[in-house]
Amino acid sequence: MRKTEFTTVFFALMGFFILLFIILPVLSLLFSESPEGLIETAKNPVVIDAIFLSCYTAFLATLVALIFGVPLAYILARKNFPGKNVVKAVIDVPIVIPHTVAGIAVLTVFGSNGIVGGNVGIQFVNAIPGIVVAMLFVSAPFLINSAREGFESVDPKLENVSRSLGASPIKTFFKISFPLASKNILTGSIMTWARAVSEFGAVIIIAYYPMIAPTLIWDRLSYGINYSRPVAVLLILICLGVFIVLRIISGRNHDKT
Amino acid sequence: MIKLENVSKNWKNFSVENINLEIKKGEYFVILGPTGAGKTLLLETIAGFHYPDTGRIIIDDKDVSFLPPEKRKVGFVYQEFMLFPHKTVFENIAFGLKIRGEKNIKNQVEGMADLVDVKNILHRHQKTLSGGEKQRVSIARALIIKPSILLLDEPLSALDALTQKKLRDELKKLHSETGVTTIHVTHDQEEALILGNRIGIMDKGKIVQTGTPEEIFRKPASEFVANFVGAENIFTGTAETKESITEIKIKNVVLYSTVRKSGKVNVSVRPEDIIISKERMKSSARNVLSGNIIEIKNKGAIIQLIVDCGLPFAAVITRQSFLDLNINIGSSVYLYFKAGNVHLF
What are phi and psi of B285, to 5 degrees? Predict the structure, then answer.
């Protein structure tokens, strides 16, 4: 019989504890509510609106990140230029700064007196655009980095061949590079969406209202945990649902190529 | 027709310097040189993937030096095939036509697939293809746009020896059928010898000699060329095809080859294809010669012998077999090699 090495057993055991640490709170939260109580909460339009708003604004943030982030990711993957490492570091800034700090930074620019908020004629404070920019700020790095890795894995020689066959650079991008990086871009989009849905700190600083789900949960906490927990459970169920479905879709895409 | 005038390019660790070259319409030109000589960079500059630092590139009387690749109409085939992995074989071959918005794509693709013998795999994805199949598809994809020139970058180097030989012969056939002007880059002397109408030897970014295979192999212009191509056994003789075999007379020596060719021919046999033995042995090899060793050259792990069989033949053996055979200058030995290893050009 093959003996399992001690190291493997030891590492698996350590890993098991960290897994348990993640799973236990989530499961106990899920099972803390009776189905009847959840249904009751789900019927409350305030709760439903907040959860829908969370998903919707996170989707908008992801869309904006896609439109502006994918071109940047492609440039970073293909071109060398002075200051490239600085650009890469800038992209990672939102990941390392505290979320409240991110919120204040975003407010400084998009607040009523900020250089953008005060000049473009769009209301950001306590409005949907405010939620979107706060989410975008903290979540865009995931999409950009993942898309960059995707483009880096596409051999430039494939693009050369496409060009030699008569495709312009932009046609080559849409017919060759983008489809081949699409798995990474999709994964990045999912991560960005998930990160945006889960953002709280940055959002409340620029837009406490209209309430996204995490804000509502926070708001209700002041009336007691039993009042806020059902919303938390609903949010977690919906987010996990979306997350799993998207993961399955991206997994399928992967198998095809 | 393609003309390079003083083309120079530096890119990463590679460079090409002052390349002057003229390749006629319908010619099969082979650029032969060791790894790192800048062959691929030169080919990519001709294709427009890089723009030259200095000099001009002229294709069909038009200066294309700074034209982007999509406007040059050159077909490019990489050593690593570079099939689009998200597309089927059909879609790969059709790509150039689709981009141009051509009609009748299906017929054209099928015709081309017929030519390179991939008709039965059109619906498949690249990961289910063998190396040989991938390279055929890649050649078909390049040829379908009816390129002014076909650029082949070590097209056979990623294939196993058997497929290599097969595809090599087919490249020759394909060239005579389509007449497409071709530049083929390789480090393999035999490939250059068999395929090239003309050969350019490249070393350290420079073309050091151009000429017909015969000129290059018989009159190397420099020591580098001589060393690079010189280890070959090359003779001139008269060939006569008899049934399934070709008989070549070179002075008093008769060799047999599987290549069908008649009249005055150049013959080459690679030293590593020759087996040396002290005793006469039973062998399936068609060519058996005997002679005396006139020279022994120590080349490190291998030993090169020159054997006088009426013609001086170079053969290489490992140091170990050299010791086992216990031979010396003047020893009489037998040389064996297959008719399939006797190349005519």
Answer: -65, 135
